[in-house]
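Thought: the user wants the 3D structure for the chain below. I'll pass the sequence to the structure tool as-is, report back what it returns, then summarize two notable features.
Action: structure_tool
Action Input:
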Amino acid sequence: MRTRSLPLLLLLPLIAVPVLADDVYLVNGRKFEGVIAETTDTQVRIRMQGGTLSLPKEQVLRVDQGDSNLAEYLRRKDLLKKNPTARAGDWLELSRWAHGRELDQAARESALAAAVLDPKLESLGPVLRGYGYVLDPQLDRWIPYADSMRRRGFVQVNGQWISREEYQARLQAQEEENARRYAARQEAARAAREDRLAALAELSLVRQMSQQPAEPSPYPYSPYGFPFSGYVVVAPGFGGGGHHRPPHGQMGPVGFTHIPGSLIPGSLFPESN
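Observation:
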């Protein structure tokens, strides 16, 4: 193993020069703080942790210059990229420096650069695992935890990693449950449809019965009308002879029996022979 030279990062403070960091204010009220702004005749180029953004100059209200940790990080990063002797440990030190200044994206970027040079570098694991990376032994490099789980045959369902067999079993159970619910809905709809048809048939039958004419009276002629409803029928006696005479004051045809409700007098109970 080669003897490591003095880490380059230890020399950086000795050669550091003041670096300006900017706060960019836009016309629409937005603001970018702690960035590197490069102004040209037509646009303003803004360098930040996430990348570079170029805006038309007329959209920028003003640019306030000042010191910035991001600017210092970008300067150190450029020095490491230009140095062919930079090692994984140098990038790891830059990652720690950025993390201490709350530049998390820059810290992750530097740690990944260190992992490319030496995936098994001591003290690199805790840093990258903190950003959700794991060392894949087959690939011999650090990859996102989700990619590692997929490579091992796991499937993420509702935030939980399960095996493909368990996933297929859950999927089949869900399909069976969906089929059962569908069949239940179909049966309920069929029963409701039959109930509606039965109600319609009953309503139709009631309408037909209400529209049928009343049955004719068995007596073709009823000359005496009942004062309340219908007719009063006067029928011959139940067999009383001609010798029957009604009581005094009840004059009526001989041999006729008085029907209750009738206006024609007669014997209520005819005498027998």
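Final Answer: Structure generated. Residues 1-20, 225-234, 237-242 have pLDDT under 50 and may be disordered. The chain has three domains: 8-134, 165-210, 226-273.
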